[in-house]
Amino acid sequence: MANGVKYNRVVLKLSGEALAGDQGFGINPPELKTVAKELKEVHDLGVQVCIVVGGGNMWRGVTGEKLGMERAQADYIGMLATIMNALSLQDALEGLGVQTRVQTSIEMRQIAEPYIRRKAIRHLEKGRVVIFAGGTGSPYFSTDTTAALRAAEMNADAILMAKNGVDGVYSADPNKDSSAVKFDHLTHMDILDKHLHVMDSTASSMSMDNDIPLVVFNLNTPGNIMKVVRGEKIGTTIEG
Ligand code: UDP
């Protein structure tokens, strides 16, 4: 068990946006390095870290659909985007001396391992960070749902939902509504009932059904990943 931490095994959900930096698109290596440094600190404490990366910095299936593509085809392109992000993150972490493995839900053996649950657990036990890429491997799903699924499969203590520029869950969009209030604690059912935009409903139901706590926090504040892992009161915790 890691020292002074609340969560020993976590699934960190990083949206594609988190890797894009100010340009809001593509991959920004300095931004990757910043995230990787924070992850290394947590990893050095002995916390077992899995990462699920999104792909929205490059492509989202729904966007393709709106532009006339077949949805499933557009979603596969999105899944490939998540694999590019995973390889970038792997590069940044390994550059800091953190051992990693990328596992993809769609086989791509020349560049990554296929997703094998028991192998992923073994990597964690050996102190390697495991990066899950390719989402669930099926169209019509999201990487939020992937995070809930992998958290259940890995028997993780929590999902850390890193947001860009938002420090938790609010009653309304704080950028548009000055009366919006931040919640410290919610249940998964609250999220579904109140239609709060934390993750999509498939991901929320999956987290609820499998009793997985979720912490929503601002990735842009340095030191936040560590604070969440230590159980400090930041962001919004969703459980029960
Ligand atoms: N995607 C998918 N199935 C999955 C996960 C992702 O089809 O299980 C596709 C979907 O098109 C999605 C894109 O990959 O829009 C990128 O993932 P996501 O939008 O979740 O990334 P994020 O918003 O976290 O950057």
Automatic annotation (TrEMBL):
<keyword id="KW-0808">Transferase</keyword>
<feature type="binding site">
    <location>
        <position position="75"/>
    </location>
    <ligand>
        <name>UMP</name>
    </ligand>
</feature>
<feature type="binding site">
    <location>
        <begin position="13"/>
        <end position="16"/>
    </location>
    <ligand>
        <name>ATP</name>
    </ligand>
</feature>
<feature type="region of interest" description="Involved in allosteric activation by GTP">
    <location>
        <begin position="21"/>
        <end position="26"/>
    </location>
</feature>
<keyword id="KW-0021">Allosteric enzyme</keyword>
<feature type="binding site">
    <location>
        <position position="164"/>
    </location>
    <ligand>
        <name>ATP</name>
    </ligand>
</feature>
<comment type="function">
    <text>Catalyzes the reversible phosphorylation of UMP to UDP.</text>
</comment>
<comment type="similarity">
    <text>Belongs to the UMP kinase family.</text>
</comment>
<dbReference type="InterPro" id="IPR001048">
    <property type="entry name" value="Asp/Glu/Uridylate_kinase"/>
</dbReference>
<dbReference type="InterPro" id="IPR015963">
    <property type="entry name" value="Uridylate_kinase_bac"/>
</dbReference>
<dbReference type="GO" id="GO:0006225">
    <property type="term" value="P:UDP biosynthetic process"/>
</dbReference>
<feature type="binding site">
    <location>
        <position position="55"/>
    </location>
    <ligand>
        <name>UMP</name>
    </ligand>
</feature>
<dbReference type="InterPro" id="IPR036393">
    <property type="entry name" value="AceGlu_kinase-like_sf"/>
</dbReference>
<keyword id="KW-0665">Pyrimidine biosynthesis</keyword>
<dbReference type="GO" id="GO:0033862">
    <property type="term" value="F:UMP kinase activity"/>
</dbReference>
<feature type="binding site">
    <location>
        <position position="173"/>
    </location>
    <ligand>
        <name>ATP</name>
    </ligand>
</feature>
<feature type="binding site">
    <location>
        <position position="60"/>
    </location>
    <ligand>
        <name>ATP</name>
    </ligand>
</feature>
<dbReference type="GO" id="GO:0044210">
    <property type="term" value="P:'de novo' CTP biosynthetic process"/>
</dbReference>
<keyword id="KW-0547">Nucleotide-binding</keyword>
<feature type="binding site">
    <location>
        <begin position="136"/>
        <end position="143"/>
    </location>
    <ligand>
        <name>UMP</name>
    </ligand>
</feature>
<keyword id="KW-0418">Kinase</keyword>
<comment type="pathway">
    <text>Pyrimidine metabolism; CTP biosynthesis via de novo pathway; UDP from UMP (UMPK route): step 1/1.</text>
</comment>
<feature type="binding site">
    <location>
        <position position="56"/>
    </location>
    <ligand>
        <name>ATP</name>
    </ligand>
</feature>
<keyword id="KW-0963">Cytoplasm</keyword>
<dbReference type="InterPro" id="IPR011817">
    <property type="entry name" value="Uridylate_kinase"/>
</dbReference>
<protein>
    <recommendedName>
        <fullName>Uridylate kinase</fullName>
        <ecNumber>2.7.4.22</ecNumber>
    </recommendedName>
</protein>
<keyword id="KW-0067">ATP-binding</keyword>
<dbReference type="Pfam" id="PF00696">
    <property type="entry name" value="AA_kinase"/>
</dbReference>
<dbReference type="GO" id="GO:0005524">
    <property type="term" value="F:ATP binding"/>
</dbReference>
<feature type="domain" description="Aspartate/glutamate/uridylate kinase">
    <location>
        <begin position="8"/>
        <end position="218"/>
    </location>
</feature>
<feature type="binding site">
    <location>
        <position position="170"/>
    </location>
    <ligand>
        <name>ATP</name>
    </ligand>
</feature>
<comment type="subunit">
    <text>Homohexamer.</text>
</comment>
<dbReference type="GO" id="GO:0005737">
    <property type="term" value="C:cytoplasm"/>
</dbReference>
